[in-house]
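Quick one, T. Sequence first:
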Amino acid sequence: MLFNSVSFAVFLPIVFVLYWFATRGNYKVQNVLLLVASYYFYACWDWRFLFLLIFSTFLDFYTGLKMADAKTQKTKTFWFWLSVVVNLGFLGIFKYYNFFADSFADGLSLLGIHAGFWSLQVILPVGISFYTFHGLSYVIDVYKDKIKPEKNIVDYSVFVSFFPLLVAGPIERATHLLPQIQCQRDFNYAKAKDGLRQILWGLFKKVVIADNCAEFANLIFNNHEDYSGSSLIIGAVLFAFQIYGDFSGYSDIAIGTAKLFGIDLLKNFAFPYFSRDIAEFWRRWHISLSSWFRDYLYIPLGGSKGGVGTKVRNIFIIFLVSGFWHGANWTFIAWGFVNALFIMPSVLFNTNRNNLDIVAQGRIFPTFKELASVIITFCLTVFCWIFFRSENLSHAISYISGIFSMSVFTVPNVKLGIKLWFLLPFFIVEWFGREHEYAISKIEMTFPAPVRWGFYYAVIIAVLYFAGSGQQFIYFQF
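Structure tokens:
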């Protein structure tokens, strides 16, 4: 069930009405309804994998209780590692088994040994990387005595499987979401209206920006031998807008949908393409994943403490693991490696926290230095996205080689459609809304009603005009 589908447009109002009117404001009944709705939502993808989600949920819930009841540290550690190994084991089998089998076979073939390995003929369970990390964060926090184990299975299950975030995040923390699930929630008109506004902007990002950019980005990437270097640059830039519109659009819809039910989810994007260096970009892109790796991997490894060797090691570990999390392909590992290279200077020279505020804060226009920094950072990010988008490493190298050729100085030989003109107003709206939670969150306080509603209707018309294809979100494959 896609957020940009008719089925979800029917599903959401039904759940909303039942949630606020049929439960009589009883949050325990509301939680049961949310759990049933979430399991139905997930079963619409493939009901067979619903059992995997339920098993993972029960395992982590039971592990939390057993760790709390453990009489010795050894017993507590046993239950902790049992949950970690089983969860990562499922993730490894479904997501990475074929990758390791194929890579090992390729390695043997280089030695003249030809071996065939059994491959797993099964689709990747949607959202497995996300709900696995939900559970792991809970288990780790209980193990480190940061939180008490949850004793209500319904509440914990809603935390893991709340349908807005189930298949592509944000990756929530028990410390943030569980307290909201376990308290009375009263309907808040202002929050619901804000949620609808954020859903609308998320749909615009996905349907109007991402899907239209995808049409041309796919054409150029899939036939890169036929295009000049200048055209390949356009293709890479369009993919950068595609993945931003697609994934941040999903996050906006998820966060906006949660607001309809009186629940606040973690912010996942903060206008990353206005970053002035790579370190700032990673504080603004997929924030819930970046902070997850920071708290549960980077800091336990020592973070930025210690000598230069320790810093370099930890940075490469965090980015290589992040790349591998995204997919079982060497292109994602290369993407993580190149990002590690790009961020390394700011880490080594302790400039990685120089840009903590938004660019040109309190001003309409940036300074020349700020503008140059944003453009350079965007170019570096676009270069990294080439690895992310490519089918394999040879594809990425061939694409990059095409850019760094004499044809880069020629007129682009790609015919762009008029639909891409939406990028200009999109960029303008994002820029003027960059200091807020999402681009149009404060539009109600900024413009008079006629202008405001004219803008809303224009966005709705654009979404309806380009709707219909129901293209899947990019991050569903992760």
